[in-house]
Design a protein that fits this description.
Keywords: Membrane, Signal, Transmembrane, Transmembrane helix, Transport. It is found in: Membrane. GO terms for molecular function: D-glucose transmembrane transporter activity. It comes from Oreochromis niloticus (Nile tilapia). The protein is mainly alpha-helical. The chain has 2 domains: 196 residues, MFS general substrate transporter like domains (Growth Hormone, Chain: A), CATH 1.20.1250; 232 residues, Growth Hormone, Chain: A (Up-down Bundle), CATH 1.20.1250.20. 70% of the residues lie in helices and 0% in strands. The chain has 22 helices and no strands. The C terminus is likely disordered.
């Protein structure tokens, strides 16, 4: 199967939403001491432009750049800052439940087009924040942007998973994570003080988070709708045939349509599965547990802790500008996500995830040793620094990109939107929990915090080794058969009939 220009355009256009998601994650962590809120409405003691509650930036998922200098501690500043960071995750948690509804309402392409209104509105709120009360405008913009990103982090993998040829499904699916890390890297670079991370330009820095949505809105009408959506959900065979020919070039789509026909027959038994019925169902329990554990392994791997420690460790190792070393971590992020794109359809999803989590476990142990001994042995700082780069590399080889697209592979058309919504909510909720609790865990365990992550990583490795099948090169039908093997699926007045009568959540 050849990769056509139309398929490349469709994947590029959809991943602009992922780029926006990554930029929004990283942009709030601009490293310099910039007062993001014009504090004229607050007490006079707050109007010192050199004070910004940098430590509260730990609450953001990326934790990518933390300024260790003395921050401002006024309760109002702390409240506004922490709210602007955490409300992003709250917006994502709420909207992730609506992914299936939006994707099925008008289709995957029109769904992405509709939600771009949110991204543009969020960008305008933040970019024009100095026109009113900046703290209220920024917090509102972050909330709307979080709501948008919760939707796009589900819609993009869903669309790519449905249009990608079986042979390239993993590589194209991993492009979602690649776009996310590129977005984070871009936000780190243009957030430097001599670019946009300064007192004059910071509204533009935040406002640019809505820019990719404008380009995506121009390109989406050129992208074909998902053939699986057209055929299985709408029953439009001719439109599905036309969409297949656009995506794959001149070929006989009979084989693809036959696979979709069989999947549609199964979907007619399943009907459209709601989120609640999916949670209660024993038919899909194995797939659902695997999907949720994959997302938990991504968030509870300790990647956020590594980002938090990075600047301090680079400083102790004698790096004169640790902020640039941290940007170097972002570059490593991007390079090894590219490695994952190249390997995922050769080595397989299961193998790369096991290698990634196992490598991270070893790095977490090395990090603990390095942190404990770096005051006694100066060279231990370099052990810690090397462990950071290796930890991030292993994360992006498997645990970073794979959970986002494997959910679409594990479920057939009926339960897929509900499953993606649940997995997305699990990811965003875990993200929020880590952001709110990590500083307390770190204060409790100090450098031993990485032993906690090593234990968690070992548990995830064992789970994936024993419970997660390889999905590389398999049809959706074959993947479903792996989970149903050895169990009798009810067909008459049993559970499938209940699922059939359920409605969408």
């Amino acid at each position: 199967v050849q990769l056509t220009g139309t398929l490349a355009l469709a994947v590029f256009t959809s991943t602009l939403g992922s780029l926006q998601y990554g930029y929004s994650l990283g942009v709030i962590n601009a490293p310099q001491k910039v007062d993001y809120f014009t504090l004229t409405k607050l007490p006079n003691c707050l109007c010192n432009k050199t004070e910004t509650p940098n430590k509260l930036r730990q609450a953001d998922r990326t934790h990518s750049i933390v300024n260790e200098e003395d921050p401002g501690h006024h309760p109002s500043v702390i409240m506004y800052w922490s709210l602007s960071v955490s409300i992003f995750s709250i917006g994502g948690m709420v909207s992730s439940f609506l992914v299936g509804f939006v994707g099925d309402l008008k289709g995957r392409v029109k769904g992405m087009l509709m939600v771009n209104v949110l991204a543009v509105a969020a960008g305008l709120l933040m970019g024009l924040c100095k026109m009113w009360k900046p703290h209220i405008m920024v917090i509102s913009g972050r909330a709307v942007m979080g709501f948008y990103c919760g939707l796009t982090s589900g819609l993009v993998p869903m669309y790519i998973g449905e249009i990608a040829p079986k042979a390239y499904r993993g590589a194209l699916g991993a492009l979602h994570q690649l776009a996310v890390v590129i977005g984070i890297l871009i936000s780190q670079v243009i957030g430097l003080d001599f670019v946009l991370g300064n007192d004059e330009m910071w509204p533009l820095l935040l406002g640019l988070s809505g820019a990719p949505a404008i380009l995506q809105s121009l390109l989406l009408p050129l992208c074909p709708e998902s053939p699986r959506y057209l055929y299985i959900l709408l029953g439009k065979e001719q439109e599905a045939r036309h969409s297949l020919c656009r995506l794959k070039g001149p070929h006989d789509p009979t084989i693809d349509l036959e696979e979709m026909r069989r999947e549609k027959e199964e979907a007619s038994k399943e009907a459209r599965v709601s989120i609640f019925s999916l949670i209660c169902s024993s038919v899909y329990r194995k797939q659902l547990v695997v999907a949720l554990m994959m997302h938990l392994s991504q968030q509870f791997s300790g990647i956020n802790a590594i980002f938090y420690y990075s600047t301090a460790i680079f400083s102790r190792a004698g790096v004169s500008h640790p902020v640039y070393a941290t940007i170097g971590v972002g570059v490593i992020n991007t390079i090894f996500t590219l490695v994952s794109v190249a390997l995922v359809d050769r080595a397989g999803r299961r193998t790369l995830t096991l290698v990634g989590l196992g490598g991270m476990c070893c790095c977490a142990v090395a990090m603990t040793v390095g942190l404990k001994l770096q005051n006694e042995y100066s060279w231990m700082s370099y052990v810690s620094m090397s462990a950071i780069f290796l930890f991030v590399s292993f994360f992006e080889i498997g645990p970073g990109p794979i959970p986002w697209f494997i959910v679409a592979e594990l479920f057939s058309q009926g339960p897929r939107p509900a499953a993606i919504a649940l997995a997305g909510c699990c990811n965003w909720t875990s993200n929020f929990i880590i952001g709110m609790t990590f500083q307390y865990i770190q204060a409790w365990l100090d450098s031993y915090v990485f032993i906690l992550f090593a234990v968690l990583l070992l548990g995830f490795v064992l789970f994936i080794y024993f419970r997660v099948p390889e999905t590389k090169g398999k049809t959706f039908e074959e993947i479903a058969a792996i989970f149903h093997k050895g169990r009798r699926i009810p067909t008459d007045n049993g559970e499938l009939q209940e699922l059939k009568s359920s409605t969408d959540a």
